[in-house]
Design goal:
mainly alpha; EcfT; transmembrane; transport; two-stranded antiparallel ribbon; transmembrane helix
Length: 266
């Protein structure tokens, strides 16, 4: 289950999406999230489905690899759907038992929320799956560069965000190894209720924290050995340049966002 989380992983291949400027992909991801929250009808989510299907096909990332990231949030989706079904008031009552009721409005909203979560995870995963950590760092730093004038350390913030994203799959893999090692020694993480399962995960925290601090110390030593001293006076081997394909991607993103706004308000 832990290895199914795809956010933070990079899938190396040669595609049109991979070759896009990282700044364009970062901004486009934020715009996509905003457009996703603008949508309030199923026709908007149908358009989002077609848009994501085209992006995944162009990116050459296997669909199975992309969809397996949804397994990790399956429980969250179920909880969100259940809360919207039973907590949304409405006039069209489908089922009722004492204070619990299911309404047509609740089912409609539950479906929208489930689709929104699914598309949100897939859209966010595309950014990290098609952008290497170095490109992601350069892109975030370039976007935050204007804020240097007010004293915000753009390079350091970009580096921390990239390292945090990169460490997500590493720590999840480490957690999976620790769980399997403890299960081999008789630990039980699968039986019992939710509270019992949560308590059984507590013994994982100590070795996980120790492993995380050890990896952080090794990373710091490796960066110091390579004479890393922050972002001042640093140069890049590859400069970020906006090309024709980036303008095409921005035009497509503007068209998609405009269509979502029209669907909502017209």
């Amino acid at each position: 289950m832990l290895r199914d989380i795809t956010i933070g992983q990079y899938y190396p291949t040669d595609s049109w999406i991979h070759r896009l400027d990282p700044r364009v992909k970062i901004v486009s991801t934020f715009v996509f999230i905003i457009a996703l929250f603008i949508a309030n009808r199923y026709i908007g989510y149908a358009l989002t489905f077609l848009f994501l299907a085209c992006i995944i096909a162009i990116s050459k990332v296997p669909v199975k690899f992309m969809l397996k990231g949804l397994k990790a949030i399956f429980v969250i989706i179920l909880i969100t759907v259940a809360l919207n079904i039973f907590m949304t008031p409405g006039d069209t009552i489908i089922w009722q038992y004492k204070s619990l009721r299911i309404t047509g409005e609740g089912l409609y909203l539950a479906g929208l929320m489930a689709l929104r979560l699914i598309f949100l995870i897939i859209g966010s995963s595309i950014l990290t799956l098609t952008t290497s950590p170095i490109q992601l760092t350069d892109g975030i730093e370039s976007i935050l560069k204007p804020f240097k004038k007010v004293g915000i350390p753009a390079h350091e913030i970009a580096m921390m965000m990239t390292i945090a994203l990169r460490f997500i799959p590493i720590l999840l893999e480490e957690t999976d190894k620790i769980m399997k090692a403890q299960m081999a020694r008789g630990a039980d993480f699968e039986s019992g209720g939710i509270v019992k399962r949560a308590k059984s995960l507590i013994p994982l925290l100590v070795p996980l924290f120790i492993s995380a601090f050890r990896r952080a110390d090794e990373l710091a030593m490796a960066m110091e050995a390579r004479c890393y001293r922050g972002g001042e006076n640093r140069t890049r081997m590859k400069q970020l340049v906006i090309e024709k394909r980036d303008y095409v991607a921005m035009a497509v993103m503007i068209f998609f966002t405009s269509a979502m706004i029209l669907i909502r308000f017209i």
